[in-house]
Amino acid sequence: MSLIKPVAANGPSGSHLRIRKMAAIVFADVAGYSRLMQTDEDDTHRRLMQLKTQLIEPQVGANHGRVVKHMGDGFLAVFDTPQDAANFSVGLQGLVGE
């Protein structure tokens, strides 16, 4: 459950209400990516794209999150609760380790 708090803020047009939402952030990347790219660039890139579409993005969604940005071999995701972020992280680690 997200905590959403209304916050009074004074702007140029006077007082208005702004909503703040609590979130949990996860950033992850591929360990040893540079070494893998040096060994076999094409296969490493293919496997990374497959990892993103078949594991990362579905698992983020299944844990009430969304991918905010992909950056090279890493990604930034936001979740509604710390529990959702932890469940995603532990679950992904288990799947990648298989």
Question: How would you describe what is shown here?
Answer:
With 98 residues, the protein is of the alpha+beta class. It has helices spanning 33-39, 41-62, 82-96; strands at residues 4-11, 14-21, 24-29, 65-71, 74-79.
Rounded to the nearest angstrom, the radius of gyration is: 18 Å
Strand order of the largest sheet: 3-5-4
Quick check: average pLDDT?
Answer: 87
Give the SSE string. Answer: EEEHHEEH
Number of strands: 5
What can be said about this structure in brief?
The protein is α+β, with helices and mostly antiparallel strands.
List the helices and strands and how they pair.
Layout (H helix, E strand, L loop, with lengths): L3 E8 L2 E8 L2 E6 L3 H7 L1 H22 L2 E7 L2 E6 L2 H15 L2
Antiparallel strand pairs: 1-2, 3-5, 4-5
Helix pairs in contact: 1-2, 2-3
Search tags:
98 residues, alpha+beta, three-stranded antiparallel beta sheet, two-stranded antiparallel sheet, 5 strands, 45% helix
